[in-house]
Each structure stands twice: as C-alpha cells, then as structure tokens.
Design a protein that fits this description.
The chain has helices spanning 3-19, 25-34, 41-56, 58-63, 80-90, 95-101, 114-121, 135-138, 146-153, 157-164, 181-190, 217-220, 229-238, 255-263, 277-290, 306-309, 335-338, 341-359, 381-390, 408-411, 420-423, and strands spanning 170-174, 195-197, 204-207, 224-226, 245-248, 269-274, 295-299, 314-320, 362-372, 394-396, 415-418, 428-435, 454-455. The chain is α/β, with parallel strands linked by helices. The strands form 2 sheets. Strands 5, 6, 7, 8, 9, 10, 11, 12 and 13 form a 9-stranded mixed sheet that branches. It has a 4-stranded antiparallel sheet with strand order 2-3-1-4. It binds S-adenosylmethionine (SAM).
C-alpha cells in the first residue's frame, strides 16, 4: 500500500471505531481487518499504529482544534481525517507534505476542505503537548476521574499517567506444563523472537517491540501464553497447590485458569466459571493448547444451584472481577474515552455482589483472592474493606499466609497493587483473604464435577475455541 492508502485506511478504521462508541476499539479493529484480508501484515501494523496514536493522544489533539466560529470552523469539523493529519504533523511531517497526502487520487484520502486547511494552519510551530494544557488533557485521563486518580497516586500522578500513555510491553508466560522458562526462551529465539525474563513473575518473558508471537511455534505448541506480568502475579497470589479444588469465579477466556492449572501441575480440580458463554467457549482452545487436563467449565446462570451445592468446598477461590479496566489503558487507550461515572456506579455494587457469592464457596481455612485490573480504590481497597467488615469469618492474609510465589516486595501484605510506572506491568490489584478455620456440621461434602459443566478435554476438533487474549 502507498502511504496515502495507509492513511485513508487509518481514517476508515477510526470512523468505524467512532461509529461503535461503546465497543472496544480492538474488537472493531479485528472486525475491520477481517473484512479486509487483502491488507498485508506490514500495512496492517502501520494503519493500526496511526489509528492507535490518535486514540492515545485524543484529548491533546482535540485541544488543538477549539471552536473558531468567526473563521467558520467548529468542533464538529474535528473528524478522524483532521486528527490523522494532525498526528502525522506532530510525528514530524511538514504541514505541506501532510496536505499533499490528501491528494484525492485513487486510494488516497479526499482533498482537504477549507475549514480543515484552516484548522491545520494553526498547528504551525506548536507541539502536541503544550504547557497551557491541563494535566488531564496532557496525560489523557477523564476530568471526572481526576479527584480519584489524584487521591490514588498523589505526587506520582504525572509519571503514572505518563507511563499509562506509552505503548505496552508484550509479556508471555512460560507454560511449565510444557517446558521450563529457559526452554521457552530458547524456542522463542529459534523462532526468531527476542525476549528476556521478567523480574517479578518467575514464569514471565518480555518481548522487545512488536513481534509476531501468535504465528510462532512455541506459541502454537502451548509452550508460551500471552499474559501481562501483572496478570501472572494475580495467579501467583492465588497460589493453588497440586491436588486442590479451585474455583476461578470470573474466568472469562481463562487467562488465570491457565496459569493456576500450571501451578497445580494438572492435578486436583479447577472450575472455570463465568456468566458469559462466549468467553467460556473461548477458553477451550487455549486450555487444549496449554495441555491443561484438570479444568472444567461452568456457566453461571440465574437460579443455578451449582454454587449453593458447593458452598464451603473450595481450597482456593479467585474472583477476577469485572472492572473499569483503568489499569489497561496502555493497551486500550479508547477505554479512557468510553468510561463514564455511571459505569463505575454500576460496577462497584456488582463487584461486591460477585465477591459475596464467590466467598461462600471457600472452605474454612481456604483462600479467597479478589483481583481487578483497575487503578481505583473504590473497586479495590474499599471493596475489600467493605467485604471484610461484613464477613468477620474472613481476614486479610497475614505475613506468612501470602503466596511465596510472589516477589518479596509484594509478599508482606495481604493486598498489593501494580502500576506501569512503578512495576512496568498493567495496573492490577489483588487482595488475599483467608477464611477462618471454623468448620460447621452443616457444611456440604466435597462435590464432584458439576452437572452441566463441560470437560475441557473436549476440543479435539480443529477450529474450536477462540484466539488467545492478553488477559
Ligand atoms: C476481568 S474479566 C476476567 C478475565 C479472566 N479471569 C482472565 O484472566 O482471562 C471479568 C469476567 O467476569 C465475568 N463476570 C461478569 N459478571 C459476572 C458474575 N456475576 N459472575 C461471574 N462472572 C462474571 C465477565 O464475563 C468477565 O469474563
């Protein structure tokens, strides 16, 4: 593709993203490229990069295009065309050269209109980030979240949000069911991929730059799984042992189920629960590729007796709760634009209800881990404090009760948070709680696999399951 055609496609992609404002941009981008299979890998990366740079710098770019009614320019004229043109300029292209890209010729974007030319002319001599911009604009966070983020990070707000604005690293987890971390490193190198061990997760590997992992042999063989180092540490906090009974209550597409099955050395039983059938379906292919044999899936439905019958029977219960995803803004810059106060107002009681339901599954003496990929105390510390207040039979794990798989700095307290600036991971929170050992005679006996649960050895047929996710 010519540079002009790539530009036109980036504009089309941003228009598609704008047309589905509640849908995650990466889902729209996947559909966009699926419908345009003729676009090759290099072009695809260049198109996505320009579109993502626009999303990452959304507020700053808009700041440069205020209403200029007297000159016939209104903010309604700020379209993906203008944002892409501005982005190219701020990336170093002279304004005349940017204008030339809009040639109107075949595959190139249509010529710039008078209001667009006028708006672009005001960019001359300016930088993308300007001292007059507020912190929220310069660092790309929503104004309504400023008080919560300021309270959370204090003097670190600026470096934390700046780190959140960077492109993320791509982390893998060596799957010890298939080989050691050293073997994974060797096989990656043999496949032409450069990685190095992570410092916090004992199984993590960090890839330099963007490398085609999913097409590589070690990925296809299940020797490595895509998983942010922070997500690996949540599984480390849960620390299930071989032979135990484990419930991954919000398992989604099983990112943490996979890591926990690895820690269990495929022994014992792990039940991956979720309310979303498509997500649980997506888990099947990943579990098969990873060589996991000790997992079953269970779809949670309203009025379902499954959980009731298994109260007090699990050694470890992980609640990887649905959350604002504010810790994943590096990966999903569009999420900053989508998140509303209303979403948070709905999420907090939902998380509390899920945590209460899941807690009932924990046996006396067992472990309950509550985790999110959120930066916000309302979803994290406050949620755990409220739970402990209303559940005196649970306590935050004391030193010595937390997982020895965690790095020393995270082991001392029952709860930890991770951030891109401090830890080089996505933002994560995990709290380990222990149910006090006070067995009662009414406890249900250990139950076998649930009715309606599906054995995950099933997908022998090609094409079953969903692609790997980074969760
Ligand atoms: C953060 S995601 C889980 C990611 C997953 N653990 C992983 O590592 O790949 C949260 C999940 O909670 C699920 N969920 C939402 N409401 C739920 C509920 N009431 N009970 C259980 N799971 C729920 C969502 O469908 C979603 O898959």
């Amino acid at each position: 593709m010519t540079p002009e055609a790539r530009l036109a496609s980036a504009i089309d992609l941003l228009n598609a993203i704008a047309a589905a404002p509640r849908r995650p941009a990466d889902a729209t981008a996947n559909a966009f490229f699926r419908e345009r299979r003729f676009i090759g890998g290099g072009d695809r990366r260049a198109i996505a990069q320009l579109a993502w740079n626009v999303l990452r710098n959304w507020r700053k770019l808009h700041w440069h295009f205020p209403d200029r009614a007297a000159e016939g320019f209104s903010t309604a004229d700020v379209t993906p065309r203008l944002l892409c043109a501005a982005m190219l300029h701020f990336e170093g292209m002279a304004l005349d050269d940017v204008a030339r890209m809009f040639s109107g010729e075949r595959y190139a974007p249509a010529r710039l209109k008078a209001p667009e030319k006028l708006a672009l002319s005001h960019l001359a001599g300016k930088k993308l980030a300007m001292p007059q911009q507020s912190n929220a604009v310069r660092l790309e966070y929503p104004d309504w979240l400023a008080p919560a983020l300021e309270a959370q990070f204090g003097p670190d707000l600026v470096p934390e949000m700046a780190a959140m604005g960077q492109a993320p690293t791509l982390d893998l987890r060596a799957n010890l069911l298939k080989g050691t971390r050293e073997e994974a490193l060797r096989e990656l190198a043999r496949a032409g991929l450069t990685a190095k061990p992570t410092t916090l997760s004992p199984w993590g590997l960090r890839l330099e730059g963007r490398q085609p992992v999913t097409a590589s042999q070690p990925f296809r063989d299940g020797l490595v799984e895509i998983q942010d180092e922070g997500s690996q540490l949540v599984a480390a906090a849960a620390a299930p042992k071989p032979g135990q009974r484990v419930a991954d209550f919000c398992a989604g597409a099983a990112g943490k189920t996979l890591a926990m099955a690895m820690l269990m050395e495929n022994r014992g039983q792990i039940v991956a629960c979720d309310v979303s059938e498509p997500r649980l379906e997506g888990a099947a292919k990943r579990l098969k590729r990873a060589g996991v044999h000790n997992a079953t899936r269970h779809l949670l439905t309203a009025g379902d007796k499954w959980a009731k019958r298994r109260e007090g029977t699990f050694d470890v219960v992980l609640v990887d709760a649905p959350c604002s995803g504010t810790g994943t803004w590096r990966r999903n810059p569009d999420a900053r634009l989508r998140l509303r106060q209303q979403d948070l107002d709905e999420l907090v009681p939902k998380q509390a209800a899920i945590l209460q339901r899941a807690a009932k599954l924990v046996r006396p003496g067992g472990r309950l881990v509550y985790a999110t990929c959120s930066l916000l105390d309302a979803e994290n510390g406050q949620q755990v404090a409220a739970f402990l207040q209303s559940h005196p039979d649970f306590a935050l794990a004391a030193e010595g009760e937390t997982s020895s798989l965690l790095p020393e700095g995270l082991r001392g307290k029952g709860a930890f948070s991770l951030t891109p600036y401090r830890d080089g991971t996505d933002g994560f929170f995990a709290a380990t709680m222990v149910r006090k050992a006070a067995p009662t005679s009414t406890e249900a006996p250990l139950a076998g696999p649930a009715e309606g649960s599906q054995a995950l050895r099933a997908p022998d047929q090609p094409g079953e399951g969903a692609p790997a996710s980074a969760a």
